[in-house]
Amino acid sequence: MTVRSIRSMAFEDLTIGLSELVLKTVTDQDVVGFADISGDQNPIHLSDLYASKTRFGQRIAHGLYTASLISAVIGTRLPGPGAVYLSQTLNFKAPVKIGDVVRVHVEVAEIIEARQRVRLACECAVDATVVLDGEAWVRVPSRAELVAAA
User: Fold this and answer.
1) What is the pLDDT of the chain when averaged over all its residues?
2) CB neighbours of 105 closer than 8 A, spacing ≥ 6?
3) Which residue(s) pair with 20 in the sheet?
4) What are phi and psi of 52, to 5 degrees?
5) pTM for the full predicted model
6) Do the Cβ atoms of 140 and 11 come closer than 8 Å?
């Protein structure tokens, strides 16, 4: 994933419709590394022979690997460092294969002033196919909290 620069946005900077888009090409190294970290050694992710006999016809990335790309956007771009994940829903719609370019889109969908909460609409797509969607709730620090933490 090519993360431009890390951007930390304060709660006061967020508006409905503000969004971030990141592209990530899925590599064999990503899939193997995620299997090592997660412990999910399912052969659909790691064995060409096994995967060739499945309905996908080839190895696919872990669904949670794709979901982790959303986490990367939230943690580095929108809203960025200081945001605290509260929840995430995920709807897996299609497989992601090695070599696919995943388009990760995160958009501010709702802002709750009283508790500095933000609902983010999240979508991952390959070409015109949505492979994963859902929403995340995060608590976003105020400008004063970000300054105090620096």
Assistant:
1) 95
2) 19, 20, 21, 122, 123, 124, 125
3) 106
4) -65, -20
5) 0.93
6) yes
